[in-house]
Specification:
The structure holds two protein chains of two kinds. Chain A folds into six domains: about 120 residues, Glutaredoxin; about 110 residues, 3-Layer(aba) Sandwich (Glutaredoxin), CATH 3.40.30.10; about 210 residues, Rossmann fold (3-Layer(aba) Sandwich); about 90 residues, Ubiquitin-like (UB roll) (Roll); about 90 residues, NADH-ubiquinone oxidoreductase 51kDa subunit, iron-sulphur binding domain (de novo design (two linked rop proteins)), CATH 1.20.1440.230; about 55 residues, Alpha-Beta Plaits (2-Layer Sandwich). Chain A has 28 helices and 21 strands. By secondary structure, chain A is α/β, with parallel strands linked by helices. In chain A, a hairpin with a 7-residue loop joins strand 19 and strand 20. In chain A, helix 11 packs antiparallel against helix 12. In chain A, the strands form six sheets. Chain A has a five-stranded mixed sheet with strand order 14-13-17-15-16. In chain A, strands 2-1-3-4 form a four-stranded mixed sheet, covered by helices on one side. By secondary structure, chain B is of the alpha+beta class. Chain B has two domains: about 80 residues; about 80 residues, 3-Layer(aba) Sandwich (Glutaredoxin). Chain B is about 45% helix and about 10% strand. Chain B has a four-stranded mixed sheet with strand order 2-1-3-4, with helices on one face. In chain B, a hairpin with a 2-residue loop joins strand 3 and strand 4. In chain B, helix 1 packs antiparallel against helix 4, helix 4 crosses helix 5 and helix 7 runs parallel beside helix 8. Chain B starts with 10 loop residues before the first helix and ends in a 12-residue tail after the last helix. Classes of the chains: A alpha/beta, B alpha+beta. At the A-B interface, helix 2, strand 13, strand 17 and helix 21 of A face helix 3, helix 5, helix 6, helix 7 and strand 4 of B.
Chain lengths: ~725, ~190
């Protein structure tokens, strides 16, 4: 008997295939331009405009522009990709109008890539073929040979010039489906071919056919389509990307976030169709339980368990909410996913709704994210148009609809009970739990609240199986986690790695290390609710439980790298200023506790601290941690407690020596002019806002310390390094 | 205006009275919304509409919303004052938002803020006398990769040094040359 859902999905995919084929892009030159809040801020709108002008004036019809979301390589944006059929795809960094002109006239029209602008200088334009060897933990288990080394040797023996072929390692392609073996998976770019080799003769065959003749070797090809392949096909040359494993962000930077057709092309809504066609919510819950997916918003509660609890409630009117109130300063992965792949969040949410039997869902998104709101709105409308959303979803008989609700700038609304009140149109103040929202949530009905990233993982779990997902992460938590890597790190951006990956890999291998190669001081995870991990813990595994044990939290995944130039007391004060301002004021420990702790920190950083302030601070912090009503108050002291634990000597230094080694605490530093180095150019005196620098031209200047406001202006404008911060 | 909650008898009169303070599309939205279940939950959305129309939430506007949506005025102001996004005072023509998120802070947003305050002669939350600029701080615009960033109206700039911030200010000053200027910039 035919299943109406399967029929519906089949018809949908056929229609999409036709309409994509009608675009006829297969043998055209594709110029890919990123488009998200950060890309646009960096100038992507101008870049797009300039390319369109160039294409128009060239009169060529074999060039198309493809708009995509954002890959998360923030510090190098805007990023542009140029894919000429049969040639290696090239990515350019920091593109502006001038660079567009150079790319267009030289690369697109004459076939000469612009080496100096290539993203991370990753590929040499002369190299025509690239072999990526999987370095995942399941490849080569029990193998008698090192495939990469043998391949390299055989290439030489075959007389292939070393500069023609590029050989790289990359993280797992997912071709193993979670099974280890004595094989190697090799991705060959630009041929988009993924091979499984098991012997020396396989490698020889690859060299003879793929390298020397450019022919594929069908017998060795991996036939099923692993989740990461498209991403590696496009971005495999860049080390920032090829060390990552993209599950939640599988489509970011690959497809047009406004196009339902493109999402469907990459297996979009297949997982929803599978779930609906089975008519069995328990099957969905079971897969998610098997996946050991833990909530990505911070709490780390098992998603499957949450859904199970909601589905078992006697009350039949149930709701599902997507928590997109990404308020942590320094976290932007939810924005990234909502802007770059809104359909996948929608699909995950619908599967969740089906699992718990919800009739209606709400997106709660920060008002600060206008582009994300626009794209989600578009996704909702497109899905309604084709019958994926609304009455009788995909012909299954189940009806479900979605609505967007905007936040209005209150950090505490990320807490689930506060979020519910905000959706109800009230002040976003938390309530005592239990009862938990899965029992009594929105308008008193059972409600499941899940984070954006959690939903982004659902479709892959259904498509590839819960066991596969669990095999990616650790014993306790399956899958990957997206981190927003920022602060004093060379490559800032969004990084998705398997749970259990070491901090070192994230900060150094992917992030490129600390800015200016300064020594690493600490890594702060989890935003204002998290703690500091000192540099000596750089080899620790990043996962929910180890982080909690270390006195920090996973939180939503903010990761701020701090160098020797950062003062821990100052950063703790920064976080506390934040939580103090964001405290909703409902419970006393949080409202008063954060205020008093902040006062003590201000006292210390202004040089008026006493040693017993530290005890007071610690006692207050513990009190606030133990007695506050909600997560905000309970976690607010984390930065203080963890910095006191690992960097107590810095607090003591501020109190006893009245000095700040990192030169951040304004009250504890002063500016002086070195009479030897000063040539009397008068720049500092002219820039001083309080006119406290005196001296005649060509003679050493002097700062009047009594009047100096320590703004640091002179320090910045002096071109002779004559001003010292002491 | 009267602060009594409207009842169905004088609905048209209430509507007419509110028309003085609210644009028609917002009134229509509230009216349509009233027919749905949990209509009171749309209060935040309504306030968003009012703020995007006027730039802030005035007392008269909030009274009108309270009357039309049949939500006590105390609840309306309660919500309006709870959320940072809502402004109760009129703001300048251009809103300068300095991001004080962690990434921006670590990269020197405090210096950037100090320079802007110095040049505009105002603190966070204030507006210049000529009503050209309002200075505000925000907690993370989510563009941490470009830190430190500022957002002028809807345009994000980053990374911005204190010197570049001055240049950005000048750009907006130039654009508004016709605008009646008081002491907007010291430089």
């Amino acid at each position: 008997m035919s299943n109406p859902v399967t029929e519906f999905y089949k018809a949908l995919t056929e229609k999409v295939e036709q309409s994509l084929a009608a675009r006829g892009e297969a043998d055209k030159i594709v110029i890919q331009v990123g488009s998200a809040t950060c890309e646009n801020a960096a100038g992507a709108v101008d870049v797009m405009d300039e390319f369109l002008k160039h294409i128009q004036s060239s009169g060529r019809e074999d060039i198309v522009i493809h708009r995509t979301g954002c890959t998360g390589r923030c510090s190098k944006e805007p990023i542009v990709g140029v894919a000429v059929p049969g040639k290696m795809p090239v990515k350019y960094e920091r593109v502006n109008r001038d660079v567009v002109h150079r790319i267009f006239t030289n690369h697109v029209q004459k076939g000469l890539p612009q080496a100096e602008q290539i993203l991370d200088g990753s590929i040499d334009p002369d190299q025509q073929i690239e072999f990526l060897f999987c370095e995942g933990k399941r490849c080569g288990v029990g193998a008698k040979l090192n495939f990469r080394e043998v391949f390299q040797r055989k290439l030489q023996e075959a007389g292939v010039a070393a500069d023609k072929v590029r050989i790289t390692s990359a993280s797992c392609f997912g071709a193993c489906q979670g099974r280890s073996g004595a094989h190697a998976h090799v991705l060959v770019r630009p041929f988009r071919a993924l091979y499984r080799v098991t012997s020396e003769s396989d490698l020889e065959e690859l060299i003879q056919k793929q390298v020397l003749k450019g022919e594929e070797v069908p017998a060795l090809k991996v036939t099923d389509k692993p989740i990461y392949q498209e991403f590696f096909d496009l971005y495999g040359d860049v080390s920032f990307f090829n060390r990552q494993s993209r599950v939640a962000m599988r489509n970011s930077g690959i497809l047009d976030p406004d196009s339902l057709d493109e999402y469907i092309k990459f297996d979009g809504f297949k997982a929803l169709a599978t779930s609906l066609s089975k008519h069995d919510p328990d099957w969905v819950i079971n897969e998610v339980l098997k996946a050991r997916l833990r909530g990505r918003g911070g709490g780390g509660f098992l998603t499957g368990k949450k859904w199970q609890m909601a589905s078992q409630q006697a009350e039949k009117t149930r709701y599902i909410i997507c928590n997109g109130d990404e308020g942590d300063p320094g976290a932007f992965m939810d924005r990234g996913m909502l802007e770059s792949d809104p359909f996948s969040i929608l699909e995950g949410m619908m599967i969740g709704a089906f699992a718990i039997g919800a009739c209606k869902g709400f997106y709660y998104i920060r008002a600060e994210y206008p582009l994300a709101i626009k794209r989600v709105q578009n996704a909702i409308e497109k899905c309604r148009e084709v019958g994926i959303l609304g009455d009788n979803v995909m012909g299954s008989g189940w009806s479900f609809d979605l609505e967007i609700r905007l936040g209005a700038g209150a950090f505490v609304c990320g807490e689930e009970t506060a979020l519910i009140r905000s959706i109800e149109g009230k002040r976003g103040q938390p309530k005592v739990r239990p009862p938990y929202p899965v029992v009594r949530g929105l308008w008193g009905k059972p409600t499941s609240i899940n984070n954006v990233e959690t939903f982004a993982n659902i479709a892959p779990i259904i498509n590839y199986g819960g066991d596969w997902f669990a095999s990616i992460g650790t014993e306790a938590s399956g899958g990957t986690k997206v981190f927003a890597l920022a602060g004093k790190v060379k490559h800032t951006g969004l990084v998705e790695v398997p749970l259990g990956t070491s901090l070192r890999k994230v900060v150094f291998d992917i992030g490129g290390g600390v800015q200016d190669d300064l020594p690493l001081k600490a890594v702060q995870t989890g935003g204002p609710a998290g703690g500091f991990l000192p540099a000596k813990w750089i080899d620790m595994e990043v996962d929910f439980d180890p982080l909690a044990k270390a006195g920090s939290i996973m939180g939503s995944g903010g990761m701020i790298v701090l160098s020797e130039e950062d003062c821990m007391v100052d950063i703790s004060k920064f976080y506390l200023t934040f939580t103090q301002e964001e405290s909703c004021g409902k419970c006393t420990p949080c409202r008063e506790g954060t205020t008093r702790m902040l006062e003590i920190l201000e006292k210390i950083t202004s040089g008026k601290g006493e040693m017993n302030d530290l005890d007071r601070l610690e006692r207050l912090a513990k009190l606030c941690q133990q007695t506050s009503l909600c997560g905000l108050g309970r976690a607010a002291p984390n930065p203080i407690l963890s910095s006191l634990k690992h960097f107590r000597e810095e607090y003591v230094e501020h109190i006893v020596d009245k000095s700040c080694k990192a030169k951040k605490c304004v009250a504890l530093i002063k500016y002086e002019i070195d009479a030897e180095t000063c040539i009397g150019c008068t720049v500092c005196a002219r820039n001083c806002p309080v006119e406290c620098i005196t001296g005649t031209r060509k003679e050493a200047h002097v700062i009047d310390q009594n009047r100096c406001v320590k703004c640091g202006q002179c320090f910045e404008v002096c071109r002779f390094d004559a001003i010292e911060r002491v | 205006m009267s602060h009594a909650v409207a009842n169905t008898d004088n609905w048209e009169a209430v509507k007419a009275a509110c028309l003085e303070f609210l644009p028609e599309h917002i009134i229509r939205y509230i009216e349509q919304n009233a027919k749905t279940t949990h209509s009171e939950s749309q209060l935040i959305a309504i306030l968003h509409m009012v703020q995007s129309h006027f730039g802030y939430l005035g007392k008269d506007q909030m009274h009108s919303v309270a009357q039309l949506a049949q939500i006590p005025f105390a609840k309306v102001t309660g919500v309006a004052t709870f959320y940072h996004y809502f402004r109760l005072q009129p703001r300048g023509k251009h809103i300068i938002n300095v991001c004080l998120g962690t990434a921006c802070y670590v990269k020197g947003a405090d210096k950037l803020a100090a320079r802007l305050m110095d040049q505009l002669g105002i603190q966070f939350g204030e507006t210049t006398k000529d009503k050209l600029f309002s200075l505000e701080s925000t907690r993370c615009l989510g563009t941490c990769g470009l830190a430190p960033v500022i957002m002028v109206d809807d345009q994000i700039y980053g990374p911005v040094s204190p010197a570049e911030a001055s240049l950005i200010l000048e750009k907006y000053l130039k654009k508004n040359k016709g605008h009646k200027t008081a002491e907007a910039s010291k430089g």
